[in-house]
């Protein structure tokens, strides 16, 4: 692939650095936070400048007001809690980064070429992490606990990334970005090869969650059937489809996914927290960071020692509840409603289907992993940017066609 340096190079550099911050090599040497701050520093500055530049197609005022609302809902609870200034800074930085990326990046990737280039930046980051893992002796294969692998296999490829689930999620967003580029523009030979490679590597990662998200994305792309319906009834059918998919997802989650011990374990973590703090309205509304951060034990152990050891903290909504309370949960609900609206409002079939499929897949991931509220894995961050970028593409197309 021919590499060209242009004004978008900073996006690719930031994404590469963020992906590399996930590597075992970098983490084992205590450099992960440094890489994250550098990567996000570059990315956030670029997003802010691209949002406020004159020649964009977005509603600056409306999007900025929405950003402020999300930021306030997500962070106001932290200011009422007894936490150190250092911890407040870290948590606020995470919230600020996700708020900016999930809302203001509408003019950051409004080109399919940028989305494709960003996917390759992640791929190069993974390749680099793998090489560092081999050279540094950190390894690229995980030993898997009993009951967590596929078909009883106890090994999983991690590609030099700290967790095999992060690795598989990275592969998924590479696949998604290249898939959409191929649908909208054209399928290049190297892109076809990379998509097959991503699927094979995801299988080798032995990540059930990764394969499930892959399947959800592929199934969700059938949203295009909506366009065979009369435009008069399309919005109603789309909303009805979302409700039906939601009900099916809940049913599958309750009757199938919870049948796997690892996912039931994660769901119990949320139930344990809700049961324990059910009568504590303050911490339920504003969050409970003061009870679990900066303690003698780790964050994970602090939560589990309080609410119970028969559950874990991987589910996004539990972490949001702890950090920002129900106000924070509301913020993320609003973000997802906004993304679904993007899909429904889009005038371009391919863009609409792409936004809907990515949003559904990202929402599904929130039930089993912390991607939607974490800056430690590029999957969630990139998903937000691709969704916003596709909507930016749609706005740009409408402007050029004077629609």
Give a structural overview.
The chain is built from 17 helices and 2 strands. The protein has helices at 9-20, 24-28, 32-52, 60-75, 85-104, 112-135, 164-184, 189-204, 208-220, 231-255, 261-276, 281-286, 289-292, 299-307, 316-345, 349-365, 378-400; strands at 141-143, 155-157. Helix 9 runs antiparallel to helix 16 (349-365). It is globular and about 60 Å long. The chain starts with 8 loop residues before the first helix and ends with a helix.
Please give a handful of descriptors for the protein shown.
single chain; 403 residues; mainly alpha; two-stranded antiparallel sheet; 17 helices; globular
Task: State the gist of this model.
The chain is mainly α and 403 residues long. It contains 17 helices and two strands.
Number of strand elements: 2
Q: What spatial order of strands do you see in the largest sheet?
A: 1-2
For the termini, the CA-CA separation is 36 Å
Share of helix, binned: 55-70%
Q: Could you state the order of secondary-structure elements as H and E? A: HHHHHHEEHHHHHHHHHHH
The Rg value, from CA coordinates, equals 21 Å
Annotation field: number of helices: 17
Give the overall shape.
globular
Low-confidence stretches: none
| Class by SSE composition | mainly alpha
Strand content: under 5%
- The oligomeric status of these chains comes to single chain
Average of per-residue pLDDT values: 85
For the sheet with most strands, the description reads: 2 strands, antiparallel
